[in-house]
């Protein structure tokens, strides 16, 4: 049975069960509750409603560059087809971010590993700002956390350069474990996985749906940098690419395809730019959704733009523990 440094003394199967258990905190509770969400009872006690749902959205122009400076009135939001009122809006949110940097070091991804690690080390120096934290994970047949969440850039860079080749690729385990680790970070912060991989999946204990649900439950953005060993579909992990796209469409984030390894620096720079130009949209669902339900969100923006955003969340209750 594989063991992972992310969760000490737990087997992968035990973790699989645990990541499917709903968080007791309602969707979006990791952000501070505004005054309008507080109600005073007849006894004078303050009761806080914790059903604020927060959606992080990236808006891009036709060239893929972030669009900044939009106002709240540029956005429309609905849940399960019902229009919602935006109660909180932050343009270019500067909330601190916790990042899980996960690098595929499997046999199929070894050819350009040194180049990837040098680029990852440079990315760490770019992306980690005061208040942010990052953790480094190695993905082979096991998933190993090489550095705890920290803002210590030199220490994190050293950890990234310690990533070493392995045999298999536990891609779904990595997403599930990274999401689990991020869910344990303090509230009031953004969360993201940055995954560098060829999209192959060979050795996970977790299934695709385990990974997808874990990422949704943790409110984690998924950024996947997919390095294609060949440009045509023969020999490519097209199934893995589609799986990552499906998860990303639920969580928000982005997927970047590299046909040449020297593109990785620019892809990292683009992820960093997106993280600094996101919009935060918060709303109180109306009508109130039933407990333990899987909810779907749709956001539109005025203008000829493309968007990536979290399109799905779980309400607290029984169904998220399926």
Overall description:
By secondary structure, the protein is α/β, with parallel strands linked by helices. The chain contains seven helices and 16 strands. It has helices spanning 12-19, 113-127, 153-161, 171-183, 208-217, 238-251, 264-275, and strands spanning 38-40, 46-48, 53-60, 75-79, 82-84, 86-90, 97-104, 133-139, 143-150, 190-197, 221-227, 253-258, 279-283, 294-301, 306-309, 312-314. It has a six-stranded mixed beta sheet, with helices on both faces. Strand 11 (221-227), helix 6 and strand 12 form a beta-alpha-beta unit. The longest helix is centred in the middle third of the chain and has 15 residues, at 113-127. The radius of gyration is 19 Å and the shape is globular.
Structure summarized in a few sentences:
Helix content is 25%, strand content 28%.
Distance between the termini: 23 Å
- Percent strand: 25-35%
For the sheet with most strands, the description reads: 6 strands, mixed
Q: Which class of secondary structure composition applies to the elements?
A: alpha/beta
Biggest β-sheet: strands ordered side by side in the sheet: 9-8-7-10-11-12
Order of helices and strands: HEEEEEEEHEEHHEHEHEHEEEE
Helix content: 25-40%
Instruction: Tally the helices.
Output: 7
Mean pLDDT: 84
What's the Cα radius of gyration?
19 Å
Contiguous runs where pLDDT drops below 50 for at least 5 residues: 1-16, 18-49
Number of strands: 16
């Amino acid at each position: 049975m594989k063991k992972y440094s992310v969760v000490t003394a737990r087997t992968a199967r035990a973790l699989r069960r645990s990541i499917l258990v709903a968080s007791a905190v309602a969707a979006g509770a990791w952000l501070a509750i505004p005054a309008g969400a507080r109600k005073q009872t007849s006894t004078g006690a303050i009761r806080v409603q914790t059903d604020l749902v927060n959606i992080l959205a990236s808006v891009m122009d036709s060239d893929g560059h972030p669009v900044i400076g939009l106002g709240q009135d540029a956005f429309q939001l609905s849940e399960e087809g019902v229009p919602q009122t935006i109660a909180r809006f932050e343009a270019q949110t500067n909330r601190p971010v916790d990042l899980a940097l996960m690098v595929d070091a499997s046999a199929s991804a070894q050819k350009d590993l040194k180049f990837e690690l040098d680029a990852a080390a440079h990315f760490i120096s770019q992306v980690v700002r005061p208040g942010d934290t990052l953790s480094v994970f190695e993905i082979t047949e096991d998933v190993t956390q090489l550095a705890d969440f920290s803002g210590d850039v030199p220490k994190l860079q050293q950890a990234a350069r310690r990533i070493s080749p392995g045999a298999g690729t536990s891609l779904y385990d990595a997403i599930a474990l990274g999401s689990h680790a991020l869910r344990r970070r303090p509230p009031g912060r953004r969360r993201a996985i940055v995954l560098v991989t060829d999209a192959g999946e060979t050795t996970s204990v977790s299934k695709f749906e385990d990974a997808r649900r874990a990422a949704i439950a943790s409110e984690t953005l998924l950024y996947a940098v997919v390095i294609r060993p060949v440009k045509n579909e023969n020999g490519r992990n097209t199934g893995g690419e589609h799986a990552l796209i499906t998860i990303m469409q639920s969580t928000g984030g982005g997927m970047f395809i590299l046909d040449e390894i020297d593109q990785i620096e620019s892809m990292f720079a683009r992820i960093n730019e997106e993280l600094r130009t996101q919009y935060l949209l918060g709303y109180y669902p109306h009508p109130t959704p039933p407990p333990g339900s899987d909810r779907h969100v749709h956001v539109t923006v005025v203008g000829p733009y493309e968007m990536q955003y979290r399109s799905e969340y779980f309400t607290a209750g029984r169904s998220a523990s399926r």
